[in-house]
Amino acid sequence: MSFLLKLEAFGLFILSVFLFSMLDYSWWWFPALLLLPDISMLGYAFGNRIGAYSYNLFHHKLTAIAAGLCGFYFQHSGLMLAGIILFGHSAMDRMFGYGLKFSDSFQNTHLGRIGKRHS
After folding, report:
1. At residue 84, does pLDDT exceed 80?
2. What is the DSSP string of 60-77?
3. pLDDT given at position 20
4. Per residue in 43-62, is it b (16+ CB within 10 Å) or e — as a string?
5. 70 in a domain, yes or no?
6. How many structural domains compose the chain?
7. CA geometry: angle at 115 spanning 40 and 65, to 5°?
8. Which of 42, 64, 84, 98 has the fewest CB atoms within 10 Å around its CB?
9. What is the gyration radius of the CA atoms in the chain, in angstroms?
10. Against a cut of 0.85, is the pTM above it?
């Protein structure tokens, strides 16, 4: 099942690259902005609860889709770009096994625990 989920995430990442190619931005914008959503991890400086909330807000596909659709509706290329970057980043994270966070620990995600295993 893990392989299937990663394969699905890869397909969604490819979709984000395709959607980006429809915008009128130079190609280098995509890789330059792709890791920007990880700034949301700064919320963990204020505790696990706020950290999980801020991380999940910027890594949830619905946030990405809402931003992209608003950009499309209002013909605002910046919002479309933000939505595509959020979507692509979230798909990339899922490809690598990083999921949405639970508030008890950064390592506890909806896809299981991440990080080093303690015996």
Report:
1. yes
2. -HHHHHHHHHHHHHTT-H
3. 98
4. bbeeebeebbebbbebbeee
5. yes
6. 1
7. 35
8. 42
9. 15
10. yes
* Domain around 38: 2-110
Please enumerate, as own/partner, the contacts of 8-13 that have beta carbons within 8 Å and a separation of 24 or more: 8/94, 9/91, 9/92, 9/94, 9/95, 10/91, 10/95, 12/87, 12/91, 12/94, 13/88, 13/91, 13/92, 13/95
Q: Name the burial class of residue 11, with classes exposed (0-12), middle (13-18) and buried (19+) by CB atoms within 10 angstroms of its CB.
A: exposed
Look at residue 116 and tell me if it is in a domain: no
DSSP one-letter code for 117: P
Whether the per-residue pLDDT at 111 is higher than 70: the answer is yes
Average pLDDT in the 68-86 region?
98
Separation between Cα atoms, residue 91 and residue 60, nearest integer Å: 10
The token pair at 27 is 């190609």
Cα(5)–Cα(96) distance, rounded to whole angstroms? 10
Domain presence at residue 118: no
Q: What residue type is 40 in one-letter code?
A: S
pLDDT of the residue at 109: 80
Evaluate whether residue 62 is within a structural domain. Answer: yes
- Return the ∠ at Cα 34 (arms to 70 and 104), rounded to 5°: 90
